[in-house]
Write a structure and sequence with these properties.
This protein has 235 residues and is α/β, with parallel strands linked by helices. It is built from seven helices and eight strands. 44% of the residues lie in helices and 17% in strands. The chain binds 3-methylbut-3-enyl trihydrogen diphosphate (IPE) (2 copies) and magnesium ion.
């Protein structure tokens, strides 16, 4: 089986999953966070090298305060759990997105987690928090414009590679496979630049129910695709 090197996941459907069970939305988020632990381990066991998950979008701040507070509390706790998982699986963790809007203690925990796991090579986990693809491109353009202004960079030196190297995902190969759970057929502002040639896989299964067998189905579907770039078969 051909295992994709980089899998990106839009973890969707926590709220609907909880509602079906007559539970509050935040219960769905708690189960969703637990499931992330399972999928990280399965991905590592399968030999996936990069896993990027969408945990909180720039648009998610518009949700009711109670839900946003619940999600932030969960993130705060998750950073601790994640350190244990990272040590066990020799996993490096990078948070992508604009961290400056997060509470200071969460920012501190992120820096700690990133520093402590930086050299691990087992699997690389990227967690997208306060992440929006358009916002990432906007921040990248600003950085490049500043460099042009100071003379550090000439505008004609801005190639696609230079842009990639100034995104939050700098140094990470583009996703081979994007998975979105719970029956929504859109990208929702995720990795707009990086998904240019990724294979897309959508499933009706809600994130808390997305288990190893569902991950295998996604990889099997990926295996059945003939990847082409401009109509040319993959080398
Ligand atoms: C995904 O589940 C998790 C986050 C966006 C934080 P949702 O909360 O979007 O669940 P649904 O889509 O409302 O069911
Ligand atoms: C996308 O899910 C964002 C995350 C999974 C973090 P949403 O549930 O927020 O997306 P839309 O609004 O349905 O497109
Ligand atoms: Mg949703």
């Amino acid at each position: 089986m051909n295992i994709p090197q980089h899998v990106a996941i839009i973890l969707d459907g926590n709220g609907r999953w909880a509602k079906k069970k007559g539970m509050p939305r935040n219960y769905g988020h708690i189960q969703g966070a637990k499931n992330l632990e399972v999928i990280i381990e399965e991905s590592h066991n399968l030999g996936i090298k990069y896993l990027t998950v969408y945990a909180f979008s720039t648009e998610n701040w518009n949700r009711p305060k109670e839900e946003v507070d619940g999600l932030m509390k969960l993130l705060r706790n998750y950073m601790k759990t994640c350190l244990k998982t990272a040590t066990k699986n020799r996993m490096s963790v990078r948070v992508i997105g604009d961290k400056s809007r997060l509470d200071e203690d969460i920012q501190k925990r992120i820096v700690e987690l990133e520093n402590l796991t930086r050299d691990y090579e087992g699997i690389h986990l990227q967690i997208a928090i306060n992440y929006g693809g358009r916002d990432e491109i906007r921040r990248c353009i600003r950085t490049l414009a500043d460099k042009v202004n100071t003379g550090e960079l000439l505008s004609e030196e801005i190639t696609e590679d230079v842009i990639s190297n100034h995104l939050d995902t700098s140094g990470i190969p583009d996703p081979d496979l994007l998975i979105r759970t719970c029956n929504e057929l859109r990208i929702s502002n995720f990795l707009l630049w990086q998904l240019a040639y990724s294979e897309l896989y959508f499933t009706e299964v809600a994130w808390p129910d997305f288990d190893k067998s569902e991950l295998m189905k996604a990889i099997e579907s990926f295996n059945g695709r003939s990847r082409k770039y401009g109509g040319v078969e993959e080398q």
